[in-house]
């Protein structure tokens, strides 16, 4: 079985970058200085991932103000709406508002923004989460398809052209709230819209809730791997079978406690023995923006340690 | 401290540049000093020229910094008094921030770096690393000073225990997550640890701080719980922590609930009988149309549930939207109040407030909004024959 590790989602900014963006808001610095800080943070994050031995690298999405904002800001037919609580956290996002027909200026959305010949991860909001977070008068499943085709697909295609080897869909919505009806067919079509013809591995990752009740439906999606949050999922209820790899979110993106790699190795080994998936990715449960950069760095390092040890186990 | 359509503010007010910059190591501009002079004149602040002289000197030792904070408090008090409010505070001019200020005066917590709230707004999130306690009462100096410079009734805003807990990591009570346990057992363990932590914050940090304030003469204390609806399953814990904080203490206790789905609070707050008043934001959800119809006043539909609470608390009805510079006309304020008074059938149980603290607005906008709130309240009183 192949086991690989990568980090996903919005990564926290360094204290330096936090200060720089705050200063920019208050007119105390200029855009060029802040862009320098972004580059420095990105370079440091890439170095951390390399040092940790992760199999795919990513740019940390450091300029993203929330999971939807870059898409909203570069799309016709979407506007920025009310500040809304991000699930049961003390962080907030601006709900996208659908105002008309959708189209996107894909080059404006920063994804997979690191190069150097590494295998890259591009993280996108899942079309399901995007359609449920948005304010819209019409049918949300129709919106999901529209978002997939007109907003996410152009960005995904551009990311793959820029070197992304793995497309990671972030979906906290499904597991936290549960599916709001028989969404699977529309979700499958939406994912197909995004990935059709692209030479890329696709991971659909759920978090913030228990994915076990619909694990079979998730495995039926047109993806290569299904991810779940070990801290919120009833793993005892997961049944083996299927041809999909899994992503195990085994570093808690909501906790300041840094997991011990040997403990993660023990838990993951036991789970892999039971589920026998054809492949496995290791990562954090959700993205790491809910902890500080100092803590996130330690979690990425621990992720690398755990992955290295597990590769020996599964070999 | 009661009366029909009692007017008060909710908490924070923006800190003036002349107070912020010197304390952050920044340089004052001539405009900052002119602003201090202009507001001093506008609000009728006694001896405000002394502040201007202090700013002109530009020497910032410890004594001068304290003096600056106190001037800022005096300005804020006069700001609210001059606008015409019945009950005031100082817009939290002497505090850093509602969470950080509490944590800085507690034991058992350590900072864990900056975590995003939204956009470029971050806060320093702390972790509970040991059993929490109170290092020292943290509003006493501020309250004593304010009491010495105004005769207007004061309402002290204090961050509530649930919010302090919800905004912190826990590295002590839960001791991490044991992934080898079944999910149900993990959830049970996590909930028990969370409860123990938040009740400890209530009992060991917030309550003794209130006891100290009450000993100094504080009569009205508002427990701010902006995090109250973060976890819908924990509303009983919000109520329990409030009750542990105030039970048996002799003061008028109220709470402020921020922008949420207020339906979530029912029926949990049936058990929060020590709360004599809820200050709740509604204007943010309302239309700007005049009138008393359900459609025009759609933002206030939920207030019936507050009316029907057995222990008959007052409701601080938010009539001013703090998210926008739009200055509500007095007629709109009047209609929002009259709607609430009609629903409650008793204007004694209706207080008039902004939706939340005004710190996101400029002083100019905030002042005009408050003037309008006062004018609208007077119109409502006239209409009700009060």
Write the layout of secondary structure elements.
The complex is a heterodimer of chains A (315) and B (386).
Chain A: E1 2-5, H1 15-25, H2 31-52, H3 69-73, E2 75-85, E3 92-104, E4 120-125, H4 127-133, H5 140-161, E5 164-171, H6 172-177, H7 184-195, E6 201-206, H8 215-219, E7 225-229, E8 245-251, H9 261-275, E9 279-284, H10 293-314
Parallel strand pairs in A: 1-9, 4-5, 5-6, 6-7, 7-8, 8-9
Antiparallel strand pairs in A: 2-3
Helix pairs in contact in A: 1-2, 2-10, 4-5, 5-7, 9-10
Chain B: E1 6-7, H1 17-23, H2 30-43, H3 48-57, H4 62-83, H5 98-104, E2 106-118, E3 121-134, H6 140-149, E4 155-159, H7 161-166, E5 169-170, H8 183-215, E6 220-224, H9 235-246, E7 252-257, E8 277-280, H10 303-307, E9 314-320, H11 330-344, E10 350-354, H12 363-384
Parallel strand pairs in B: 1-10, 3-5, 4-6, 6-7, 7-8, 8-9, 9-10
Antiparallel strand pairs in B: 2-3
Helix pairs in contact in B: 1-4, 2-3, 8-9, 11-12
The structural class of chain B is: alpha/beta
Number of strands of chain B: 10
Task: Evaluate the radius of gyration of chain B.
Answer: 21 Å
What kind of sheet is the major sheet of chain B? 7 strands, parallel
Order of helices and strands of chain B: EHHHHHEEHEHEHEHEEHEHEH
Oligomer type:
heterodimer
C-alpha Rg of chain A (nearest Å): 19 Å
Beta-strand residue percentage of chain B: 15-25%
- Give the helix tally of chain B: 12
| Strand order in the largest sheet of chain B | 1-10-9-8-7-6-4
The span between the termini of chain A is 7 Å
Structural class of chain A: alpha/beta
General shape of chain A = globular
